[in-house]
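Methods — Computational structure assignment.
A single polypeptide chain was analysed. Its primary sequence is given first, followed by the predicted tertiary structure written as structure tokens.
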Amino acid sequence: MRPDTPAENVDHAAEAARLERTAALYPEDAEALLLQAAAHLEVSGDRPAATTLYDRLLSSPDGLDNPHLVRALKASNLWEYDHEAEARAIIEGVRAAAPRDPAPWVIVAESLEAHDELEAAHETFTQAVELLLTDVEEPPYATHPLLFGRHRVRRMLGTAHDAWDTLADTLHSSPVSLDELHDPNRVWSLGSENPAELQAEITRLRAELGTYRQALSRPFPVAILHWPAAELDELLASYPSLSAEYPSHAAHLATIEASLRELSASGTPNLGIVTGTVPSYEAFAASEATSPSDPTLLPQYATTLAARGRAVTWPPERGAQCWCASGKTYGGCHGAGA
């Protein structure tokens, strides 16, 4: 997790402070906001302050949505300012916990790789791939960096391709192949005096940079607002004029699914759903100096929730529960006939 805004356009220390203030206003989003703040502090060079934020999150009495991600980021940061022993211990702890989220695996494996621990990085990438992708029909987007990272490390180790490397090749969309991007001999071409070799390497580097930008800087999702049944009942009891927007809960859920399918069919990428609560909506209305009964406020509220990291990806992965919280799988609920 790194800030999306280029360094030359941001005062990272000031941005970190702003995010900390925002986290105090929205405690339900503190985890995502403080992780962004810590990332800005790392970029600014204040790594001890970033570690302090990671420790603050890990000591939270309310628990975390993704404690393994926080630990992985803390380990990566610690190693960058000479706390290698502690970083190694945390990395081993993350591996032993075997999280189902690919992000912590990517972070700890790349940290090992960055410090020339290639064998350990390879073991970590492989452990994650086997855990998360064995018997999976189609690798989720979030797991692609695991396959690409493993491919890269194996090329550096001089290991022959295996089935996972072949899968990485099929998922790679850049015009420059993974074998070229991950060729250990590429570094030598940077010292060449041959203009053609230098130009070829510049082309490869641009392709690689484009791949990383796509992976690290995906935009906020186009988010549709979802009200659970109890929240919608409370909303309409308090603001009856909104019944024109929500004639019934069943119609509300059907509209969400239909809208997302239409957006998907039109080519809109990175779709998501945010779940509203009446207290949160009322607080947002107050911050906008607007009445909660104003229907034009609803899409603004959805966008704000998405920007605060509250969106979940649509459609759910194969076999996952439906977004409507019915307890059924998506394919057996709103995803039927998709």
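Note: The longest strand covers residues 222-226.
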